[in-house]
Design a protein that fits this description.
The protein has about 190 residues and is α/β, with parallel strands linked by helices. The chain has six helices and five strands, in the order βαβαβαβαβαα. About 40% of the residues lie in helices and about 20% in strands.
């Protein structure tokens, strides 16, 4: 059986962000036969503009994102919450992978959302907005595969996320569900 591939999109651009560390944990604890890579350069993609989304003008990084999403078996969004919603960089990524509407790279892609934020609910509003936007874009969102860890400043002040057994197990569970999603769909169709 071919290796499953999961692409991770991280909503925090800070080099030492806890959400980036969550993505690293996902890669390190992925089930056997599953490869996880994090898309680098989301901040290099210009804001979505239909004038740019024509043959010969699509920015190279936007085209790279679309190709990476289309090639992956699943996409894991790892996000904090900014001002009660998702970071602009993830919203922009969803805009690019949703076009052309009904035919974009997001269509039929399995997706899940995890992350942490300073607030007590761990970014739930952000995660809900990401799931909603992905559904509109045509993704198959796994609503039961999620993890929101609140109070990140306090929780990770003295411990790295990789040393928090509850967090590691939660991430491992979401990744395993995402990796198994396509197999479950194939089995159900047969």
């Amino acid at each position: 059986m071919a290796e499953k591939t999961i692409l991770t999109l991280v909503g925090s651009l800070r080099a030492e962000s806890v959400n980036s560390k969550f993505a690293q944990i996902a890669a390190e604890t992925a089930p056997e036969g599953t490869a996880i890579t994090t898309f680098a350069g989301l901040e290099e993609i210009p804001f979505y503009n239909e004038d740019l989304d024509v043959e010969g003008k699509v920015p190279a990084k936007a085209a790279e994102l679309r190709a990476a999403v289309a090639a992956a078996d699943g996409v894991l969004f790892v996000s904090p919450e900014y001002n009660g919603t998702m970071p602009a960089v993830l919203n922009n990524a969803i805009d690019w992978i949703s076009r052309p509407f009904g035919q974009g790279a997001a269509v039929g892609t399995f997706a899940a959302v995890i992350g942490t934020s300073a607030g007590q609910f761990g970014g739930l509003w952000s995660h809900d907005d990401i799931r909603k936007s992905l559904k509109v874009a045509g993704a198959t969102v796994l609503d039961d595969a999620k993890l929101a860890v609140g109070g990140s400043f306090q929780r990770f002040a003295g411990v790295e996320p990789k040393d928090d057994a509850e967090v590691v197990e939660g991430i491992r569970g979401v990744v395993a569900t995402l990796a198994a999603a396509q197999l479950a769909e194939v089995a159900a169709a047969n």
